[in-house]
Amino acid sequence: MELTQFSSQISRFTPLVWTMLLGNFFVRASYYMVWPFLAVILYNKFALTATEVGVLLTGSAVFAVLLGFYTGNLADRFGRFTLLYSAVVVGILAFTALALAEQLWTFCIAVFFACMPRTLWDAPSKALLSDELSDSQDRELALHLLYFLVNVGAAIGPLFGLWAGLNGEQFSFIYTAFAYLVLLLALIVKQASAMKVERDSAQNSVPSFGAWLRILRQDTRFLWVLLATFLVYLVFGQGDSSLVQYLTRAQVPELAVLISSLIITNSLIIVIFQFPLLHVMRDWSIQSRLYCGGWILILSQLMMAFNPVSSFWGWIGAVAVLSFSEAIMFSNINIYIDRMAPSHLKASYFGAAGLCSLGFAFAPLLGGVLLDWGSGTTLFIAMAIASLKAIYLYRLAARSN
Question: Which of 33, 62, 231, 308 has an alpha carbon within 20 to 30 A of 352's alpha carbon?
Fold first, then answer.
């Protein structure tokens, strides 16, 4: 992308667009601030077993994903800002509860609610981006920038969590609650500029949730994309859980150094190469971008399947290839969904697409089963096959167009 074109597109981003982008950054950073370290707090303060912690965290994540499917339709029916306000209010209450809870049951309820702001914010904020930017290229840039900021938030979140969640001061969660309060004030200020968007949206006839489900069942192309994306997320999810399990069981030398290096490699490649890749692929169709990312994903899984377990640089190379696939696919999946969704059902479609995140939720379970029953090679070959199946499903969706 040329610098002048980039500057021109950025100049057309309204204050509301920037509020949505920075809000997504903050919501994601807050989520990752909590998620990696809750298990430690639950063990140290409440003495929960590993199984009990796993049930609580997995259950809250699945609940949040399923909630997002419903709230996307609510955002189309009752307005984007209604759900955005709900997200920040829940965030304020949840993180305040995490800071103050002394009983296990209140802390567990707070954990469930702490997973909700991300879900409540995601679909309506993406829909608002689409509503605000009439030019398709501007929307595409905004969604790429959204993914970039989400990754920065995911990187910064655990660093803040290390300070706020693991230094023995549970009360530090109150700082996140205060930050959500600041985000609430920003929404109040920017809502006036969004009123036209809300009124225009209200002029369209938005179906009830039941009617929306009937529409969804008939949209075969979108269902193929959902299933393909679920498989893609299932494959990527192995890198966060099963790969670490595999390396740990294999007693790889300098395991901590290797895992840290893999995380840094992933973050650096996505942050550095996302926009250069956007420039290279600017004239490609969205399907071609997804096919390219899918084939790179297959290559990464085959590299992992046949890499000698003690080969440090082999794992770095495999994760680097995986990261290039991620940089290509994740933002373009959002763009694909934006193009498929009718203007009055943007949030509903983005909310339904959130179901694909169940791929991340079930990745540790499937990966653990494959590691127990087979080996690392079995796991990664199975993921390569799943990636190939995803490409096939994306092709089916393109043919259904």
Answer: 33
**pLDDT tier at 199 (50, 70, 90 boundaries)?**
very low
Task: Give the domains, in start order, of the chain with CATH numbers.
Answer: 14-203 (1.20.1250.20), 210-401 (1.20.1250.20)
- Per the CB < 8 A criterion, the answer to whether 193 and 16 are in contact is yes
- Computed over its alpha carbons, how large is the radius of gyration of the chain? 21
Amino acid at site 224: W
Q: How far apart are CA 200 and CA 223, in angstroms?
A: 28
Q: In the structure encoding, which two tokens stand for residue 394, read together?
A: 């994306």
Closest CA to 337 of 208, 221, 233: 221
**Around Cβ 301, how many Cβ atoms within 10 Å?**
26
CA distance 3 to 101: 50
Measured at the CA of 265, the angle between CA 35 and CA 29, to 5 degrees, comes to 30
Closest CA to 352 of 61, 198, 54, 127: 127
Query: DSSP string covering 123-155, please?
Result: HHHHHHHHHH--SHHHHHHHHHHHHHHHHHHHH
| Cβ partners under 8 Å of residue 116, min gap 6 | 64, 67, 87, 90, 91, 94
Q: SS3 for 236? A: helix
Query: Long-range CB contacts (< 8 A, 24+ apart) of 180-186?
Result: 180/30, 180/88, 180/91, 180/92, 180/95, 180/117, 181/88, 181/92, 183/23, 183/26, 183/88, 183/91, 184/85, 184/88, 184/89, 184/92, 186/19, 186/23
Question: Could you tell me if 265 and 319 are in contact, meaning their C-beta atoms sit under 8 angstroms apart?
Answer: yes
Tell me the one-letter amino acid at 154. A
The continuous run of DSSP H or E covering 213 comes out as helix 209-218
**Contact predicate 291/348, CB 8 Å:** no
pLDDT tens digit string along 210-231?
A: 888 888 899 999 999 999 999 9
